[in-house]
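Weekly sync, protein design subgroup
Attendees: M.S., D.O., the rotation student, P.L. (late)

Item 1: inverse folding check
M.S. brought a backbone from last month's batch and wanted to see whether the design step gives back something sensible before we order anything. D.O. pointed out we never logged the input encoding, so this time it goes straight into the notes. Structure tokens as presented (207 positions):
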């Protein structure tokens, strides 16, 4: 089969001597255009079937030197946590493998679960079982890094049939481009495009 494919490619190249292969991405880098600004939606979260995930808001990853934009998200995440707790919506935390302290403004209660893993928080943790035991079919994903824990955990949630609510004001990376790229990947990626809703923390109704 491989020989047949190679032969077909050779025949195509010989039959079209005037044609050239398309440039690779590095040769076209400056021609890339940003997609349209995505729609941000008002969403409703049912406390009986939704969990709030707070990913890696710890000293190692969320600080002025490494990721100052993360610090800007912390008050918004804290307010979302407050509203979630008030409505009885469960809050689940994650840490990196280094497990440095969670920032004071979003510190978990003793009863709130914490898992520790690399970028996919389902990997080698009890997160899936925790959510199943809570009867969760929807997760609100917040945290850092956007292209790390947020991207990979949201995708892993989609693979497991969970719906994903993504408040774009509650994710962060070292720069704005990476944050925007993450949102675009989650909005269009095969693992999440059918299950994701883009929103903002102030547009989430919990009831």
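Designed sequence read out in the meeting:
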């Amino acid at each position: 089969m491989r020989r047949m494919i190679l032969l077909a490619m050779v025949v195509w190249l010989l039959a079209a001597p005037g044609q050239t292969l398309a440039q690779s991405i590095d040769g076209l880098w400056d021609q890339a255009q940003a997609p349209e600004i995505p729609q941000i939606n008002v969403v409703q979260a049912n406390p009986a079937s939704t969990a709030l995930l707070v990913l890696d808001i710890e000293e190692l990853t969320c600080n002025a030197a490494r990721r100052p934009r993360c610090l800007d998200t912390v008050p918004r995440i804290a307010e979302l946590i407050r509203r979630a707790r008030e409505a009885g919506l469960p809050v689940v935390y994650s840490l990196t493998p280094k497990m440095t302290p969670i920032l004071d403004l979003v510190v978990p209660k003793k009863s709130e679960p914490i898992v520790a893993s690399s970028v996919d928080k389902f990997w080698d943790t009890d997160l899936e079982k925790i959510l199943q035991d809570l009867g969760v079919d929807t997760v609100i994903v917040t945290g850092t890094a956007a292209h790390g824990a947020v991207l990979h955990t949201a995708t892993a949630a989609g693979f497991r049939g969970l719906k994903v609510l993504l408040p774009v004001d509650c994710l962060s990376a070292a720069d704005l481009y990476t944050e925007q790229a993450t949102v675009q990947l989650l909005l269009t990626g095969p693992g999440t495009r059918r299950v994701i809703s883009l929103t903002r923390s102030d547009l989430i109704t919990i009831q």
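Discussion: Strands lie at 43-45, 50-55, 91-95, 114-116, 138-144, 163-167, 171-172, 196-199, 204-206. Helices lie at 2-15, 68-87, 127-133, 146-159, 176-188.
Action: P.L. to compare against the previous round before Friday.
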